[in-house]
Write a structure and sequence with these properties.
alpha/beta, Rossmann fold, 2 domains, 5-stranded parallel beta sheet, 12 helices, about 55% helix
């Protein structure tokens, strides 16, 4: 390594240009071979550094989002569910609902891809520079109830208010006790018209009273949640049981439960 190269790399390290320090030599060689101007060479070097930083930020924000698994919209099989509005899903992927502080509710029986779609929309939001946080409703409410008992609610609620997109997974898999219901109502109220949420549920809206064991508070939650929202109903059998069904290990029940609820 020449003394000039050492000086260049030292300067880049001081300026926090770690990726540039690794890539500039190869880019300089390419520029010399193609007889690029100084401006063209500088543009390529800065583009490389900008792209590397963007990918690092995406990786960091993805880790902070705490997705259960990475999923992209391109991986979703729109041919599998019996009924799904593909056009509406792709429209939501434009993320205009985030700009308008609207919510998205994905309703359907287990295994039809609700969580996949929620994560895919969340990952697209991250790529567009938005902060995202994913958590199951059971885990969230356990933490909030504990925080309430320890008088730590403002501290626990702060990051839930601040993220641009909050994804709440699996509403309806467990009936909630009164303290959890109160915490959930507080969270929905805190984010009302301030930040977007994506919620997944295996229950129709008419069944939410049984989830919260209180029809009045369920109505209050739905009133705030659905005021600015999009509802996606997904119907079909479980994707996870598809291969078992093909192999004859599992048989489709005679009557399949229906999930109702129109778009708002």
């Amino acid at each position: 390594m020449s003394l000039q190269s050492e000086r260049l790399e030292t300067l880049m390290q001081r300026l926090g240009l770690a990726d540039m320090a690794q890539a500039y030599a190869a880019l300089a060689e390419q520029a010399a071979q193609k007889n690029l101007s100084y401006y063209d060479f500088l543009e390529r070097v800065l583009e490389n550094e900008s792209h590397a930083r963007q990918e690092r930020n995406i990786k960091l924000r993805t880790q902070m989002a705490r997705f259960p698994h990475p999923k992209r919209l391109e991986q979703f099989d729109f041919q599998f569910p019996t009924s799904i509005d593909e056009k509406k899903i792709r429209e939501l992927a434009s993320l205009r609902f985030l700009e308008r502080h609207e919510n998205v509710c994905l309703l359907g029986p287990p295994g039809v891809g609700k969580t996949h779609l929620a994560v895919a929309l969340g990952m697209e939001a991250i790529r567009q520079g938005f902060s995202v946080y994913f958590i199951t409703v059971v885990d969230l409410l356990e933490r909030l109830v504990q925080a309430q008992a320890e008088h730590q609610m403002p501290k626990r609620m702060a990051p839930l208010r601040q993220c641009r997109l909050l994804i709440l997974d699996e509403i309806g898999y467990r009936i909630l006790e009164q303290p959890a219901t109160t915490c959930f109502f507080q969270l929905i109220s805190e984010r009302y018209e301030r930040g977007s949420m994506i919620l997944t549920s295996n229950k129709s809206y008419g069944e939410w009273g049984s989830i919260f064991q209180d029809n009045v508070i369920a109505s209050a939650i739905l009133d705030r949640l659905l005021h600015h929202s999009h509802t996606i109903n997904i119907k079909g059998e479980s994707y996870r049981l598809k291969e078992k069904r093909k192999a004859g290990v599992w048989t489709q029940p005679a009557a399949e439960p229906s999930i109702s609820g129109g778009g708002v």
